[in-house]
């Protein structure tokens, strides 16, 4: 399949598909970070994670419309505001959902799957009723338009670069929060042994709620980033939830570094192969490889060496 | 200090602790002895709030513990070292101790904990799960002491620990009591350890205290009879 291209063309194709893959990588990482916290740390199978992402995307859409209508002069800054709005609204909804539903299900992990799947259907219908079934898109501010020409043949889109830098910053922030702060220590203690964490003085209910809200909030930011590479519809989140679970499981459920490494591998493999094969063949091949590796390493790419 | 009166704990319909009365003085170390299944662990877990009690009251000084959540009991001054130690195995030694600081609001580990258990300072960046049993026991005690408890509950602290360390542990517990002025309630199956560490010995049988003597006057053969199967 490479025969039709010269070697310099191939290099350019790989570079550009690689960068296109980086946008996908960013969405995967942000989605998977949230899910790694909720699924990897708390053990809750959150099927509605995609809908939290889409909530962030709709919030970004609303913010951009608001800026366009009220202060067109500041339109360039809307994206920053939109990310904050997306984080706060998805986080707040997450906290509400945890309080109303998830906290009753911690000892029944499989039931969280059904309950959150139901939640995802409810949210999809809400979006359809509020925003309509048609997909909506946002227009990018000028400074995110265009691309950097590295050579004659290789061009890198600026918005992709921006999203990637943002993703890495957020990933570093999450790492700091989980592994360097006292709060992160409490989260990990609760996750490992909820009754014992209570018995050393940690308010486990509060920690659970904050953790779930954080995971959902990050999904909201992923939604903000998502508006840059696709248009938002009520069911857009569905396309990402399976991939995201794949990323988390492949990376090793409790490892943030593993999550990032596996998001990179899967998004790059998919993006590069999509150019040469059809999209679904690319997906099939990726899945086959992931399944193969998981059979050899069921604990995922990265796992802690510890006496259990 | 700790006054437990008419205290009951049940799993569903089966009552494990049945109208128990128990008093613990300030600075006192009390050992509860009993065979397997007599309710030692159930009593300990219910005092820290891991399992609910079904009747009676448990007061720490003037605070009623019944009805409080675990973390509120810790804030009220109860420290807990569970059976099997239950270290957070993927977290480092230092992080483990830090979890105990939550209720104090402080973020620096008190120096005296490392003075008490120097080995924890050496191991502070090792993962808790990779320590030996004896080291984990020290870590579990340090974690409980980090919350500055008035009352320390230890559930079978000698389980799975080698004999030489058991004697050392009895000395350490007495030292903690002398230095911090707290009360200790320890459940045990090993009589020699209980005699080493405690001021008073209780024997629990079918969820009730059936024997109560000062350790100095304890008659080994009488107690052994309670413990033999």
Automatic annotation (TrEMBL), chain A:
Membrane topology term: Multi-pass membrane protein
Cited Pfam families: BPD_transp_2 (PF02653)
Protein name: Branched-chain amino acid ABC transporter permease
Keywords for this protein: Amino-acid transport, Cell membrane, Membrane, Transmembrane, Transmembrane helix, Transport
GO terms for biological process, alphabetical: amino acid transport
Gene Ontology cellular-component annotations: plasma membrane
PANTHER family hit by this protein: ABC TRANSPORTER PERMEASE PROTEIN, BRANCHED-CHAIN AMINO ACID TRANSPORT SYSTEM PERMEASE PROTEIN LIVH
InterPro entries, alphabetized: ABC_transp_permease, ABC_UrtB_bac, BCAA_transport_permease
Domain of life, source organism: Bacteria
Location(s), subcellular: Cell inner membrane
Organism of derivation: Marinobacterium nitratireducens
Main location: membrane
GO MF annotation, one: transmembrane transporter activity
Positions of transmembrane segments: 12-40, 52-71, 77-101, 113-133, 153-178, 212-233, 239-263, 275-296
Family classification: Belongs to the binding-protein-dependent transport system permease family. LivHM subfamily.
From TrEMBL, chain B:
InterPro entries documented for this protein: AAA+_ATPase, ABC_transporter-like_ATP-bd, ABC_transptr_urea_ATP-bd_UrtE, BCAA_Transport_ATP-bd_LivF, P-loop_NTPase
Gene Ontology annotations of biological process type: L-amino acid transport
NCBIfam families named among the record's database cross-references: urea_trans_UrtE
Originating species: Marinobacterium nitratireducens
Family: Belongs to the ABC transporter superfamily.
ABC transporter domain span: 2-229
SUPFAM superfamilies: P-loop containing nucleoside triphosphate hydrolases
Keywords: Amino-acid transport, ATP-binding, Nucleotide-binding, Transport
Domain of life: Bacteria
The name this protein goes by in its record: ABC transporter ATP-binding protein
PROSITE patterns: ABC_TRANSPORTER_2
Family matches, as Pfam families: ABC_tran (PF00005)
Molecular function GO labels: ATP binding; ATP hydrolysis activity; branched-chain amino acid transmembrane transporter activity
């Amino acid at each position: 399949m490479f025969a039709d291209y010269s070697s310099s063309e191939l290099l350019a194709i790989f570079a550009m598909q690689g960068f296109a893959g980086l946008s996908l990588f960013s969405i995967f990482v942000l989605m998977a970070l949230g899910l790694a916290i909720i699924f990897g740390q708390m053990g809750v199978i959150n099927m509605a994670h995609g809908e939290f992402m889409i909530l962030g995307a709709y919030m970004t859409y609303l913010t951009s419309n608001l800026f366009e209508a009220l202060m067109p002069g500041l339109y360039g800054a809307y994206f920053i505001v939109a990310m904050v709005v997306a984080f706060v609204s998805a986080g707040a909804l997450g906290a509400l959902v945890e309080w109303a539903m998830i906290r009753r299900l911690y000892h029944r992990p499989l039931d969280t799957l059904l309950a959150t799947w139901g939640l995802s259907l409810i949210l999809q219908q809400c979006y359809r009723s509020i925003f309509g079934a048609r997909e909506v898109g946002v227009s990018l501010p000028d400074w995110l338009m265009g691309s950097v020409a590295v050579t004659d043949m290789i061009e890198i889109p600026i918005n992709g670069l921006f999203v990637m830098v943002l993703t890495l910053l957020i990933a570093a922030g999450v790492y700091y929060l989980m592994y360097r702060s006292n709060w992160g220590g409490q989260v990990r203690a609760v996750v490992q042994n909820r009754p014992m964490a209570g018995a050393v003085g940690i308010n486990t209910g509060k920690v659970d709620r904050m953790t779930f809200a954080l995971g959902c909030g990050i999904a909201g930011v992923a939604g903000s980033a998502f508006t840059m590479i696709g248009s938002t519809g009520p069911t857009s989140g569905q396309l990402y939830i399976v991939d995201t679970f794949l990323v988390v499981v492949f990376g090793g459920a409790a490892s943030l570094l593993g999550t990032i490494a596996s998001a990179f591998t899967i998004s790059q493999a998919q993006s590069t192969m999509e150019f040469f094969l059809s999209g679904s063949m690319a997906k099939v091949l990726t899945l086959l490889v992931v399944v193969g590796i998981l059979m050899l390493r069921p604990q995922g790419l990265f796992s802690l060496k510890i006496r259990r | 200090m700790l006054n437990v009166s008419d205290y009951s704990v049940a799993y569903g319909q089966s009552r494990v602790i049945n109208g128990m009365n128990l008093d613990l003085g300030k600075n006192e170390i009390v050992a509860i002895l009993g065979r397997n299944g007599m309710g030692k662990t159930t009593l300990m877990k219910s005092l820290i709030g891991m399992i609910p009690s079904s009747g009676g009251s448990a007061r720490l000084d003037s605070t009623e513990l019944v009805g409080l959540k675990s973390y509120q009991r810790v804030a009220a001054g109860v420290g807990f070292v569970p059976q099997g130690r239950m270290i957070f195995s993927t977290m480092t030694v230092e992080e483990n101790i830090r979890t105990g600081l939550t209720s104090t609001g402080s973020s620096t580990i008190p120096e005296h904990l490392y003075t008490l258990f120097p080995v924890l300072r050496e191991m502070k960046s090792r993962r808790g799960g990779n320590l030996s049993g004896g080291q984990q026991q020290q870590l579990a005690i340090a974690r409980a002491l980090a919350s500055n408890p008035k009352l320390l509950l230890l559930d079978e602290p000698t389980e799975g620990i080698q004999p030489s360390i058991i004697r050392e542990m009895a000395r350490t517990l007495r030292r903690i009591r002398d230095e911090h002025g707290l009360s200790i309630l320890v459940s045990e199956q090993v009589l020699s350890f209980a005699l080493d560490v405690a001021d008073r010995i209780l024997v629990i049988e079918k969820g009730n205290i059936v024997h109560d003597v000062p350790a100095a006057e304890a008659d080994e053969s009488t107690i052994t009879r309670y413990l033999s199967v």
